[in-house]
Structures are given as C-alpha cells and as structure tokens.
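quick one, 120 residues, struct below
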Amino acid sequence: MSAWIGEGANRWPAAHVLDTARLYRLALERAERGARYHAVAEEGVAMRAIAETIGRRLGLPARSITPEQAPAHFGWLAMFATADLPASSALTRQRLGWRPTGPGLIADLEQLTDGEVRAG
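---
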C-alpha cells in the first residue's frame, strides 16, 4: 500500500537530481562563506499526490492512514511523513543564478519506466 497520513495535505519540497547536481556545482564555484542554499524547484508537493502517484505506478492501493498507524507503516520515517515542509529557493536562485529545468516530482514519477520503478 502507498499511504499518506490524514488528508495528505502536508508538503515536501522537491528538485530533480540533475537540477540539484547543477546547484552543487554552482555552490562550489560561487559559494559565499557561511551561505546556505536550498535545492528547491517545487516549494511543496502534497504527500497525497506523491503517494497516489507511487501507488498507481506500482499497482498498489493508495489510501489515507491515521497518525497512530503511521509508525507501523513508515517506520522511523513516520515523523517525516507527517511534517509539512514547504521551502523556498528564492535566495539561492538570486545569489547563484540557479534555474531548475527538470521535471517536477509528480511528472518525473509518472515518466519512470517499469524497470526504474521496480529497481528503485
């Protein structure tokens, strides 16, 4: 089963791996001492959308679970699965000129081939 907790409205930021790699390169080339950079192309993707997409791609049922059921389903990740973590890369983009171009998380999950889905 692919699950979300409650309404699944909590959000996770996301960035494509190639965009993240470009950001690392820019940070190494142009970094300011003590600066922090955020690899965030999407400020927040709803957990329900993530779980539904994963469930559809893997042929699994996707449904809501209660906060009490979360530890049994997610294990040690349960504390993260309930978090609402929107984030911004506005300063990172401004300081480093970073412009993510990769697909969004849901689009990327939808594009995976069967071999990629099964291999993880």
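The longest strand covers residues 42-46.
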